Amino acid sequence: MYQEKAEYTVYMPKDLKESVIEYAKENYPNEIILLLKGRLEKESAHVESFVIPPMAKGGRTRAIFNMNLLPPDRSIIGSIHSHPNGIALPSSDDLLYGLGPIIMIIGLPSEIRAFDKEGRELNVKFL
């Protein structure tokens, strides 16, 4: 299921990384899910902020929200969610139901990895 690394880079500000990790730790042992806002370019994605999706609920094995309540927003480029077990690899459900082309996973306590919808790992740079 997992393929070699794609030649695509996701850029995220360091302060945003720290905020997301802190939010995931606060909700441990439950998963969290956030929507990534930013812009896509030819060979990169630039994460600029995140939002908590409507009616988001985290459980021990998954986090869900009501997609029907999302307003149209072209700045949503993907999602980030936590894996409290520490394994920052996407499940088949993550790949199937991920919103947008970028799927980021927080492997607690502090690892963040990114994948595309095919499961190829993307380069991540924190600025």
Quick structural gist:
By secondary structure, the protein is α/β, with parallel strands linked by helices.
Set down the secondary structure blueprint.
Layout: E1 9-12, H1 14-27, E2 33-41, E3 44-51, E4 57-58, E5 63-64, E6 76-83, H2 92-97, E7 102-107, E8 111-115, E9 121-126
Parallel strand pairs: 1-3, 1-9, 6-7
Antiparallel strand pairs: 2-3, 2-6, 4-5, 7-8, 8-9
Verbal overview:
By secondary structure, this protein is of the alpha/beta class. It has a single domain (9-60, 74-126), classed as Cytidine Deaminase, domain 2 (3-Layer(aba) Sandwich). Helix content is 16%, strand content 39%. It contains 2 helices and 9 strands, in the order βαβββββαβββ. It has helices at residues 14-27, 92-97; strands spanning 9-12, 33-41, 44-51, 57-58, 63-64, 76-83, 102-107, 111-115, 121-126. The chain has a 7-stranded mixed β-barrel with strand order 1-3-2-6-7-8-9. Strand 8 and strand 9 (121-126) form a beta hairpin. The protein is globular, with a radius of gyration of 13 Å. It starts with 8 loop residues before the first strand and ends with a strand. The mean pLDDT is 90.
Number of helices: 2
Query: Span from first to last CA?
Result: 30 Å
What's the CATH topology name? Cytidine Deaminase, domain 2
**Helix/sheet category:** alpha/beta
